[in-house]
Design brief:
421 residues, alpha/beta, Rossmann fold, Molybdenum Cofactor Biosythetic Enzyme, Chain A, 2 domains, 3-stranded antiparallel sheet, 15 helices, 18 strands, globular
């Protein structure tokens, strides 16, 4: 039976958190559509991770989407809830934390947003990326959800009146004993050891059934909740890699440029290509992908435009949400055509909107996470028309500069002339 419900605001978030349980052999199912019925699940599923797709929603819609799921979980007896938040604190943070508390009937929530393995830390209630306040990094310039604050209580209070306490790990046990009103406790953490110490305290506490944080804290939940697993899987080697990149994050752009310099083919979605969904436009575009794939076996299809920086102001002029949907949709149509070719490839997708768009177009409702290539970079299996497709997904902000090359080394037989990659 389902012991834990994970609620993420985008698809890559559901995957990078769900895989924390799969790695430990815990049977985990990832659901694309939050309209699913939680009670209609296989008996062997222990963790259910659901994508509400609410990061781009307005506050009211996001609150309602999360509240509905949490309330249903409470009704059918799922004992634990984990509200997965973006590690850079993008999206409807305050509204969705409030919805989780309200829907669960609980009054207290422990929120640990740090993810030290991915360079996200929390100190004195401020979220940092590589020791820089998060709003001053590339995440503060995100084209769709720029992070405007670094102090976590300021982020939460934009959408919620729930009181927020900040605690060091050394203060956590005492604070938990005194919390009685509806409250959120933000725990400072600079290292995995800090998160582990917080987990030790929570493991011994009763009455805490609702948690929040990103994949870093989620990795401690099997320990806190006493969950055990027995299902383990391995990735398979494929002939090549095809990357669908819908993310416009500057970190992703650096990763693409590095991959191109190290043997990847690259095909841009031109401004016309993003909207040209007619058969002639797509077929012409596909031919350029086929040529690159035949030559290099590793190809990136990206949404960046050479010589044009897409920022929030530019996207507002071009109708931000329409642009976002169309980019995801065209990636989905291209992926659908590529899957029909039968290429023996691992398909890599960056950006939660892009992954959701692809899943919608090809008509697939779930992925089964297998393992992590590195933190936040998840390898999953997709079953489609009798075929098993290997998919790697990541948020635009995750992974080192060489992440696409690392993926190539991990899951393909491709080697550059002169030696291994």
């Amino acid at each position: 039976m389902v012991e834990l419900l994970v609620i993420a605001d985008d698809f890559t978030g559901a995957l990078d958190t769900g895989v924390q349980f799969t790695k430990k052999g815990i049977q985990t199912k990832i659901i694309v559509d939050s309209k699913c019925q939680l009670k209609n699940q296989d008996n062997n599923v222990q963790v259910l991770a659901v994508n509400t797709n609410s990061r781009a929603m307005d506050q009211k819609q996001a609150y309602e989407a999360v509240y509905k799921l949490v309330h249903e979980a409470r009704e059918i007896g799922i004992p634990y809830i984990y509200k997965k938040t973006d590690s850079a604190l993008r999206g409807n943070i305050g509204g969705e934390l409030s919805a989780t508390i309200d829907g669960s009937g609980q009054r207290r929530m422990v929120f640990i947003p740090a993810y030290p393995d991915a360079d996200r830390t929390t100190e004195n209630g401020i979220q940092y990326y590589k020791s820089i306040p998060i709003s001053e990094t590339a995440f503060g310039r995100d084209p769709f959800e720029p992070v405007k604050f670094s102090f976590i209580p300021d982020i939460i209070k934009q959408q919620s009146h729930v009181p927020v306490h900040i605690a060091n790990v050394s203060e956590l046990e005492k604070l938990l004993d005194t919390m009685s009103e509806k409250e959120v406790c933000v725990v400072n953490a600079k290292s995995n050891e800090d998160i582990r110490k917080a987990a030790d305290i929570l493991k011994e506490k009763e009455g805490y059934n609702v948690f929040a944080g990103c994949a870093g804290f989620a990795s401690m939940l099997p320990y806190i909740l006493g969950m055990e697993g027995k299902y383990f899987f391995k990735p398979r080697m494929t002939a090549g890699v095809i990357v669908s990149c819908g993310s416009l994050n500057p970190i992703t752009e650096r990763q693409i440029k590095y991959a191109e310099q190290n043997g990847f083919g690259r095909v841009h979605l031109s401004a016309l290509g993003k909207w040209d969904t007619q058969s002639k436009g797509i077929e012409k575009f596909l031919q350029s992908i086929y040529r690159q794939y035949e030559e290099k076996k590793c190809v990136i299809i990206d949404s960046f435009e050479e010589g044009k920086e897409l920022d929030e102001n530019t996207l507002q002029k071009e109708k931000m949400e329409e642009t976002r949907f169309q980019v995801a949709n065209i990636h989905g149509l291209i992926m659908q055509k590529l899957l029909e070719t039968g290429f023996d490839a691992t398909y890599v997708v960056t950006g939660g909107d892009t992954l959701k768009g692809i899943m919608d177009v090809i008509g697939c409702e779930k992925l089964n996470p297998v393992t992590e290539i590195e933190k936040g970079v998840v390898l999953s299996k997709m079953e489609l028309k009798g075929r098993e497709i290997q998919v790697i997904s990541k948020s635009g902000g995750f992974g080192g500069t060489d992440i696409f090359c690392k993926i190539r080394r991990t899951v393909t037989r491709v080697r550059l002339r002169g030696g291994t990659l």
